[in-house]
Amino acid sequence: MNRYVYILSLFICWAAVFSSTVYADEFIVAQNNKTFKKDGKKIESITIKKGDTIRFKNEDPFFHNIFSLSDLKTFDLGSFPKGQSKTVVFDKAGTVEVECAIHPEMYMEVTIE
Amino acid sequence: MKLTTIARDVTYTCLFFMSTLMITNASVAATDINKYLRPAEIPQPSNNLITESRIELGKMLFFDPRLSGSNWISCATCHNPALGWSDGLPTAIGHGQKVLGRSTPTILNTAYQPLQFWDGRARSLEKQALGPIESAGEMAQSIGKSEGKLQSLIDELSALKGYRDAFEKAYPGEGITKKTIAKAIASFERTIVSTDSPFDLWIKGEKHAMNDAALRGFKVFEGKGNCVKCHNGFNFTDNGFHNIGLKDASDAGRYAIRKVKILIGAFKTPTLRDVALTAPYMHNGAYKTLEEVVDHYDRGGVTKENLSPNITKLNLTAREKSDLVEFLKSLTGAPNPITYPVLPTE
C-alpha cells in the first residue's frame, strides 16, 4: 500500500513539474522606439497564462529600466542596453502594470489568467 | 574584347552598388534630420481644445498676482517671458521670499511634454497648473474655500465681472471652478512655443543659417558628446528621467514619485529649445553657463552614485566643447513678442 502512495506522490510531483515547465510559454516583448512591441507591433496590454515568462528585450540605442510596483508582482530589472534582455515569470493570476523608469510614457498591462 | 566586356560589367556593377549605397546613406541622413522637425500641430486634449477666448482668459490668470495668497506673486513672477519664461535664479523664490529647492523650469514647449514638473508628478498641464498656486511654499493660495480672512481664489475671481464674463465666454456654463482655472492656464501655456532657431532654418535647407562652429558642434552633439541619448527629437528631450551626477545629490527627484532605484536623484530631461535664455542650468541651478554644463558632462558627472548609464567621461577637446556650446546657442530663436493683459478690477 505504501508503495502505491509513494508512486502516486512521485506521479503528482512529476505532473506538477511537467505542467509548470513544459506548458509555460515565453513571450518576447521588445522595447523599441520607446514603446513596448510584440511581433513588431506596439502593444499596451498582453494576456498570458499563470507561470508564463515575458522576456523584455531592449532594441533601442539607449538604456531602458523595466519595472513594476504592482501588488501582484513587484520587480525592478535595472537598466540594460540595446541587445540585452531580461525575463520575468508571472506566477500569480491578476493584472500587473509594467513601465520603464527612464521613459514613463512606456506602459503596458499584463493580464495573467 | 572579352576582357573589355568583363571590365565594363564590373564597372557597371560597382557603379550600381555605389549609387545604391549613396541613396541609402542619403535617406538615413534625411530620416535623422526629420526627427528634429516641428510636429504639425501643438498637442491638446480633446476636452480642452485651444480657443482664442481660452487663451485670453489663461493669459489674464497667468499674469494676475491675485492668484497668490499674498496677491503679489503671479505665475509670470517666476515664469517671466523676459527671462526665457523662467526667472534667471538658481532656484525659485516663493511665498514670503522663501528660497525653494529647485529651479524654475521654462514653460516654453511644455505643450509637447507628457509629464510636468522636474519630477514629472503631473500628467498634464491642467494637472500641473494648480500645484504652484496651492503650494504653501510657492503661491500659498487657497483655491476652493475661503478660510476666515483668507479669501479663496474662486471667491476673489467670482467677485469681478471681468472674470465672470471671461470664464463664461471661454467655458460656457461651466462657471469659475478649479477645473476651469486649470484649463484656461493650460490653454495659454500651450501657446508658448519656440520659434524657428538657426538650427531649424538649417534643417529646412538654409545652408548658412548655422556657422561652422555650430555645425561641428552638431556632430559632437550626435556623436562623441552622446548628448542625443537623452536630448533628442524636436524638443530635444526624451521626456525621461536621469541622474546626471550633480555635486549636490540631496534631492530624491523622481524617486519620490516612483520608488525605483535608478530614479534616486533623477530629474526630467529639460528641453534645449531657447537654452541660451534660461541660465542658470540643471534642476538646482548648479551651473551659470553652458560652458560649465558641457564641462560637467565632459568629466562624466561629479557624483557617481546611481549615475545614469548614459553619462560617461567624454574626453572632448577644447574646440569640441566650444563647438558644442555654439550648437546649443543655435537652438535659440527670436522669442514671440508678448503683450501684458489688462486685468479686471471690477
Give an overview of the whole structure.
The complex is a heterodimer of chains A (113) and B (346). By secondary structure, chain A is an alpha+beta fold. Chain A has one domain (25-112): Immunoglobulin-like, CATH 2.60.40.420. Helices cover 18% and strands 48% of the residues of chain A. Chain A has one helix spanning 2-21; strands at residues 26-32, 35-38, 41-42, 45-48, 53-58, 64-69, 74-80, 85-89, 94-100, 107-112. In chain A, strands 3-2-1-5-8 form a 5-stranded mixed sheet, with no helix packed on it. Chain A has a 5-stranded mixed sheet with strand order 4-10-9-6-7, with no helix packed on it. Chain B has 346 residues and is mainly alpha-helical. Chain B folds into 2 domains: 52-190, Cytochrome c-like domain (Cytochrome Bc1 Complex, Chain D, domain 2, Orthogonal Bundle); 198-329, Cytochrome c-like domain (Cytochrome Bc1 Complex, Chain D, domain 2). Chain B has 11 helices and 2 strands. A two-stranded antiparallel sheet of chain B has the order 1-2. Residues 10-31 of chain B have low confidence and may be disordered. Chain A binds chain B through residues 34, 61-63, 65, 67, 69, 76, 78-79, 81, 99, 101-105, and chain B through 114-115, 120, 229-230, 238-242, 254, 258-263, 266, 308-310.
In short:
The complex is a heterodimer of chains A (113) and B (346). By secondary structure, chain A is of the alpha+beta class.
